[in-house]
Amino acid sequence: MPVGYFSLILHAHLPFVRHPEYPEFLEEDWLFEAITEVYLPLIVIFQRLHEADAAPRVAMNISPPLCEMLADPLLQTRYTRHLENLLELAEKEVHRTAKEAREFHAVARMYADNLRESLDLWNGRYKRNLINAFRELQDEGVLEIITCCATHGFLPLISTHEARRAQIAIAVANYMKHFHRQPRGIWLAECAYEPGVEELLKEFGIEYFISDTHAILYGDPRPKYGVHAPVVCPNGVATFARDIETSQQVWSAEIGYPGNDLYREFYRDIGWDLPIDYLKPHLHEDGNRRHLGLKYHRITGRNVPQNRKEPYIPALATEKAAENAMHFIGERIKQAYKLRETFEGHPPLVVSPYDAELFGHWWYEGPQFIDFLFRKMHWDQSEIAAMTPGDFLDSGLPIQVQRPTASSWGENGYYKVWLNEGNSWMYPYQHDAERRMTQYCDAAKAGRGDAAMTTRILKQMARELLLAQSSDWAFQIYQGTTVEYSSRRFQSHIQRFDLLAQMLEQSSPPYEGEVATATADGQVLSPEQLELLTEIEHRDNIFAEIEHRIYCR
Amino acid sequence: MSEEKKDIATGEETLEFVLDEPGLPGSGEFVSAAAEDVSEAEESAEPSELDEEKMSPVFKLLARPSLPRLESENRARLQMQSPNRLHFYWSVRSNPFQTLNKALGAATSNYTLVVRLVDLRRESEELHRIDPEGNWWFNVDADSQYRAEVGFYAPNRPFVRVLYSNTIETPRKSPSRRTAAEAEWRVPAQKFAQVLDVAGFKQDAFDVAIAGDDADAAGDATYRAFGRLSGKPASEFAGLDTEELRYAMLALAAGATLEQLRFRVSERIFAVLERLTADASKAEALAALRSEFDIEEEELLAEEEEFGPAVFGASLVNFPKRTRLRTRPRGFDRVSKFEPMASHSLAAR
Fold it and tell me: Is the Cβ of A212 closer than 8 Å to some Cβ of chain B?
C-alpha cells in the first residue's frame, strides 16, 4: 500500500472564439496555439505512457466550449491552415539558421520536426478531431475526463436558479454528446463555489467537484484531514480541494519550476525579432507582428533583459524537466510521510489542479515534465500512487461529511477578480437576460406560441445568454488583457439576446405579467429578421443539442 | 400599495412600499451611462479593414455591438465580492417620490431616498443617501447575513421600504469553531492546528492552537485581552469577530503597524483598533495577549508575504498570504507547551 496518493487535475478551457464572419481572426489563434503546444503534446504523451504500460491516472477537464471548438469543422479547417503555415515557416527557418544563425539551428530543426509530426498526427491518426483522441484515452483508462460549467459561467454571480441550473444541465448534455457517457466530476468555473451548488450537481448525477483549499479548511465542521482528503457535502456530492504546496512548486511565478534559467523564454519570439517582409506570409492579413510560437531563447536569468537572452538548448531543458520531475516526486514522498504521520496512519491524498495550458504553452517543457513524472512514479518508487478523484470515491476509503465554505481559486480566494469596479457594469445586463430567459421559456411552455420558430429563437437566445456568462470576459477585463475584445464579446451576446427577444415580442402585444407573447410561427418573421436569426445562429453555433426548456421554472 | 410592519433587524417601524411589483432586477442611468462608456471605448476595437459600403445591414448591425437600454424595472441585487465587501445595484421603475407623496401626502418633505444595508445576524444597519438608480460597495463583516433595501428615511419617522434585495451570507474567513459530532471525525484543536499547518495555513494553525478547544472561552479571553490593551471593559466588544480581533492583536504584538492592518481586517475591526489602540506599542499588545494566552515573544516573527497570486500563464491564483507579519511556525510536537487553552485552564487564570 502506498504512503499517499497524488491526483493531477488538468483544467483545459478556452472561451468560445469562432468568427466565421471573417476569413481569419486573431483571437482564434488562442485555440490554435493551444492545440499545437498543449493538447497534441499531452495526447501524445498520455498515449505513449499508456503504451509503455506506465499507467498514468489523470483527471482532465475539457470544458464544453473547448469541446465544441475542437469538434467544429470550420475551426478544424482553419487550424490545418494555421499549422501548415507554421510548418512552412519552421522549414524556412531551418534553411535560414543553417546559413546565418547557427546558434539557433538545432532549435529550428526541433520545431520543424515537431510541427511535421503534429501535422501528420492531426491529419492522420486524429482525423482533425482531438475529441476522439481524448475520448479514446478515457476509454483506455488513462484519463478521467470531467466537465465544467457550460460556458465557464461563474455560478455565484449568476442571478437565477434556472440560469445556474442550465450551466450544469447543458454541460452534462454536451459531455454526453462528446464522450458518450455521464461525467463523474465537474470543474466549477474558477473553482467558484457557494453553498447550494452541490444540489444542482446532484440533480444531474455529478459525484464530485473541485474546489479551492479554504472551501474545505474553513468548512464546517473542521475537516479531520484538512485539505488532504475529500469531504462529502450532506447531499452526498464530494469535493476535492487544491493542495497549496504543489501549486506553488509548479505554478508560482516566483518559485515555480517553469522559471528555471534553462527553460524556453516565452516572450522572445521570432514574430518580433525577424524582418517583417520575411515574416509577412505567416502573419495575419493585417500584417501586424505577433507571437508565432517559434522561440529561440532560454530564460537565462530572472532579471536578464530580453535582448540579452541566450540561445535555447533543448537537451538541457529536457534534462532539467527530468530533474524537476524527480524533485517533485521526492517532495511528494516527503509530504506523504509527513501527512501520514500527522494523520496517524491515514493515507493522504494530494490534489494538484492546474490550468492545462500551463503545460506546453506557458511552460514549453511542461508536457515533458508530466511524461517524466508518470514514468518515474511508475518505475522508480512505490510510496506515491496516482489516482483520480473517481478512483478515490471507488476506493471505499471513508469520507467526512462537511459543509464547504464559499470560495474560488482566484486572487484572494473569493470573487474579486470577476466582480470589481472595472467589470461590475456587466451584471445588470447579464442578470436581466437571465431573468427574461426564464420568462420567455415559461411563456412558450404555457402554450403561448411554442412553435418551431419560437423554439429556434429561444434556443439561440439560450446560446447568447450562455456565451455572455463566460467568466473569461470579466476576468480579462480585470487583468487588463484583451479588454476591448472581451467587452465587445459580452456586448455582442447581450445585444444578440435582445435582438432575438425583440423577434419574439413584436408579433403580438404583451400579456399580463409583462412578458411578451412568443412568435406563433416562422411566417411572422420578416425576411430581414430571418436573415438576422440565421446569421446569429451561423456565428454562435455552440451547443447544437441545446434544450432551452431547461430555463423554465 | 403599502404595508406597515416591524423591521426585524432594527425593531424600528417600517412601511413597506411595493411599487408595481416585488423588487426584482430594471434600468438606470448608471447602467445606461456605463453602456455608453463601453460602447465608445469599443469603437476602437472595430476591425479596421471593414469596408462600410460592402457590409450588409445584418453584418453592420452585428459588427457594431452596443448594449441595449435596459427596460425600466425595479431591480435590487446584492452580490458578494469577498467576506468583507458586497456590491449592490438597484433601480426603481417609477418615480419613488411621487408614489411616496401619493401615499403619505404632505408628510413626506423630510424623507430622503436611501439605501439601507441590514446585517440580519448582528441586527444592525447602515444608511446612505442615494439616487433612484445606482450601485454601491459596502464594507461588511465575514460570517454574517445581509440584505439591502432601497427606501425613504426621515428622522423619527417610519422607514418606507421601496425595494429589497436578495440575501447574501458572507462566509467565515477562518476555520470553523466546530469539530465533528461523530467520534470518527472529531479532531481536537491541537491536532487540527497541525492539520492546518501542513496544509500551508500557518497563521490559522497558530490561532487555532492558542484558542484551544473551547471557542467561547477563547472568545471571552480575546475580549478581555483587548479590553486590557484598550483600557476599556471587555463587554464593549461583544459582537466583534474574535478570530479577527486576535489576529489583529497578534500582528500588533509581532510589530505590525496599525496602517498595515487597514485592508487585512474588516472595516469594523479596523475602526475599533484605530479608535482605541492607535498608540498601543508592540510590548503592550504582547502583554495583553499574554495575560490570556500562552504565547512567547519569540514565536512572533515579522515576515514578508510568501507568494503573490501571479503564476505562469494568464491566471491569478489564490495562495494563503493573509499576513505580512505572521507567527513563527509553532513546534506542534511540544505538546505540553501548546496544550490547548480549554475553558478550565482559562478559568484558572
Answer: yes
- For residue A217, pLDDT beyond 60: yes
Residue B138 C-alpha cell reads as 459596502
Q: Which amino acid, one-letter code, is at B276? A: L
Contacts of B75 in chain A (CB under 8 A): 428, 431-432
Its pTM stands at 0.90
What spatial distance separates the first Cα and last Cα of chain B, rounded to whole Å? 60
For residue B95 the three cell numbers come to 418615480
pLDDT digits (tens, 9 = 90+) for A308-362: 999 999 999 999 999 999 999 999 999 999 999 999 999 999 999 999 999 999 9
Q: CB–CB of A535 and B62 under 8 A? A: yes
Report chain B residues whose CB lies below 8 A from the CB of A495. 62, 65-68
Angle (deg, nearest 10), helices B29-42 and A426-445: 110
Tens of pLDDT along B229-247?
999 999 989 888 998 899 8
Residue A351 pairs in a beta bridge with A7
B348: buried, middle or exposed (CB in 10 Å: 19+, 13-18, 0-12)?
exposed
